[in-house]
Fold:
Amino acid sequence: MELRKDPITRSWVITGDDVIETTPRSQACLFCDPYAEPAQVIANLPGLDGSAWSARSVVHPNALYHIEGEPARRGDGLYDRMGSVGAHEVLLENPRHDGHLWNATDPEVEQFLRLAALRLQDLKRDSRFKYISIFKNHGEGAGQEFEHPTSQLTATIFVPRRVLYELRAGRDYFEAKERCVFCDILAQEERQNQRVVEIRGDYLAFCPYAPRVPYETWILPRSHESSFERTGSSRVGSMTDLAALLRRTLQRIRTVTEAFHLVLHTSPNSQHPSATLGYWKTLDEDYHWHIEILPVLEAKARSYTFKEIYYSPVTSETAVKRLRNAEI
Ligand SMILES: [Zn+2]
Ligand SMILES: [Zn+2]
Ligand SMILES: [Zn+2]
Structure:
């Protein structure tokens, strides 16, 4: 595996000739079957009600990125390439094989969120890593990898393209208005109340004005904060509200479809100055962490196969009515 940079869009891709798996997928769960090969544990959160652990991070069994070595960035004519240095972890959301984020208890979901914050904090100490992504693909249409309730984490030596767009847009908006664009969106959405799914304590779930897919939903903290892990470690009580809102939002979305992508967008690793990325002083003021949930609708798949322009056949104003009124 290696990283290559597209010289036109300047975005990195990971590529390599993957060995095609010929062995049939075993029925046993890699993460909770007592006879399965034990996974390499990185971090555990203490168990609730007598269980050994509540949320756990392990090395991905087929990691795309590896922690050892230097990126060794080098040119290849006009092209750029580097080694796939990074981290690739599986975050076990629950010790129970059927303990999904939408049917777990709020304290269980909260433990998973704390684990995510802890891993972000820990990996940002490594100056090689520019960004840490946390995401979940659930359902066949979304490319789910494991049966056990899991999310995944990758720490990369570059900032993913979509996040870079958001960071630059946030900075530009702040330069012009001296305000955070996400805070402005929140204020308008709360005022208009046309696309708000639910408000819980300091958190708001809403369908974005220009959705990429039907029923796209975002969750944001209502008070400004650029880094998720800072919220996770400082505002102790508020993680309970986030856990409940995340659980309830997923329940709502599951009344429409089972499959979804979920991604956490948080500030990049700005603890270590980067000459190539040239982090700006206002990063903490102009960026605002959030969770994006992109449902996968089988019947509508055609609508976003061509990703040049997103086409959503359901407006957010219509989507929100169904999500708000869902029986959960
Ligand atoms: Zn399992
Ligand atoms: Zn903000
Ligand atoms: Zn985002």
Q: What stands out?
A: The longest helix spans residues 106-123. Helices lie at 106-123, 161-177, 181-192, 228-234, 238-254, 283-286, 316-325. The radius of gyration is 20 Å. The first strand starts at residue 2 and ends at 5.
